[in-house]
Amino acid sequence: MKKQLSFVPISLLTLSPGKPVPVDIYSWVHGADKPHLFLASDRILESDLLKNKPDDVELRLFIEPSSRSDFQQYLQRLVNDNDHIKTLNDERRSAIVSEVVRDVLANAFKSESTSTIVGTANLLGQHIASLVSETQLSMTGLSKILHHDYGTFTHSANVALYSSLLALRMGFDEYSIEDIAVGGLLHDIGKLSIEDRILNKAGKLDDMEFRIIKKHPLEGFRRLLSEENVTTCQLLMAYQHHEKLDGTGYPVGIESDEISKVAKLCAVVDVYEALTSKRPYRNAMRPEQAIEIMSRDVGKHLDGEILEIWKEFVFENEGALS
């Protein structure tokens, strides 16, 4: 079983029917002592590969670390092939787009170049907006495909998708949804200026560390302000997403009427994503737990009307979440 740690997990949903995969794919069924070749390089996934799998057996797929770059390029080609990706069902299309967004954003963040990150975010925002506008996504389906590990790029990718979905529910047009998607990808860019030892600290932050964390909205605003292709919406999402309705937020401490609508939207999904993802100091919460905690902050931190719209989306298929 130790060998599993050297493999990179992937989702079965990211293997698109009709398109050859350029890397070897391995399967690891629970209880097996080693992985087995599931799909050889340049073969197309066929439905009969799954026919003999019992329904109660979890099929986990992996690629070798050396194949990761080739697999990412494969996913990016799928996303850029509009004619093909629109033929896929909503769940598979969502899995491919979310995986590409996360991986491409991760590479951009590793560059630590604001211009590179902004340029990447603008390209990815188009894919997110198209996905949200053209498919029927549910929280149940998203829970199967989104990563929930701790990392600035993972959090930002999820916040971008959540923000877009909430914006759609709130009646924003497609242009605005794309604008908000980019804002979600960029909202935590200021954390690039914070040391990993603080961002990844397993225990409670001390007063000095928390003061440093509280600087990231202002630092993000400063980084983005120098870029040409950043909108007012995106600047406000980065600058105000930690402000609270009662004026106790940061970096400025403005109150309800002074906080932009897009920042209030971002605040709701930012808190939800943080609560439902694993952190160095705690496990991920279930959706109902997160919503219960968030509801206590209505009127103080979060906008009640926006939270109610988000809550309706989260629990549309409540039975599947239990």
Description:
This protein starts with 7 loop residues before the first strand and ends in an 8-residue tail after the last helix. The chain has helices spanning 68-80, 82-85, 90-111, 114-134, 139-145, 152-169, 174-186, 196-199, 207-213, 216-225, 232-240, 261-275, 287-295, 304-314, and strands at residues 8-10, 25-29, 36-39, 59-63. It folds into 2 domains: 1-88, no CATH class; 89-315, Orthogonal Bundle (Hypothetical protein af1432), CATH 1.10.3210. Helix 4 packs across helix 7, helix 7 (174-186) packs across helix 11 (232-240) and helix 11 (232-240) packs across helix 12. The chain has a 4-stranded antiparallel sheet, with no helix packed on it. The model has no long low-confidence stretch (mean pLDDT 88). By secondary structure, the chain is mostly helical.
**Beta-strand percent range:** 5-15%
N-to-C span: 30 Å
CATH class of the largest domain: Mainly Alpha
| Helical residues, percent | 40-55%
Tally of separate domains? 2
Major sheet: arrangement of strands: 1-4-2-3
